[in-house]
Design a protein that fits this description.
about 35% strand, alpha+beta, single chain
């Protein structure tokens, strides 16, 4: 009998290779997303709560960078590390362009390093995540270092 892979299950580290690339699904950022995020985090900064504020660095209804990051991580959880991600160890992030309400974001992910632990039942996996908008313009880039599970023996 062959083993059946669980739909939506993440990758164990042995299924990954340096240079391997993935693309997430797309997600439109809504006004409700922004309101919920700033309310739950307490980010009640004027540029996020006053639609008429004209002294900010950008026009439109900007989404906090933390929201953009969180939405992309959610897409990655659903497809890459669901049930296999053991820990998020490190993140280095750079915001390149604003994301506004109504923008649709997605990411390209490249595995850049895999370091198995001494027991080989887990590994530290590093990936570069390039977040893009609906026009395929880079809006954020980050490197994530995660501990991923391995095969069970």
């Amino acid at each position: 009998m062959t083993e059946t892979k669980l739909l939506g299950a993440g990758y164990i580290w042995q299924e990954l290779a340096v240079g391997q690339r993935f693309r997430t699904h797309r997600r439109t950022v809504t006004e409700t997303d922004i309101i919920n995020f700033i309310s739950v985090t307490g980010m009640l900064e004027t540029i996020f709560i006053d639609k008429t504020f004209s002294h900010g660095a950008m026009q439109g209804r900007p989404a906090p960078g933390g929201l953009t990051y969180g939405l992309i991580e959610g897409l990655l959880m659903q497809g890459m590390v669901q049930g296999t991600g053991l820990a998020l160890l490190e993140v280095h992030k750079k915001v390149l362009k604003p994301v506004l309400a109504g923008d649709t974001i997605w990411a390209e992910v490249e595995v850049t390093d895999i370091r198995p632990t001494s027991k080989h039942n887990r590994a530290v996996v590093t990936s570069r995540v390039d977040v893009k908008n609906q026009d395929a313009v880079d809006v954020m880039t980050y490197t994530a270092v995660r501990m991923l599970a391995g095969e069970r023996h």
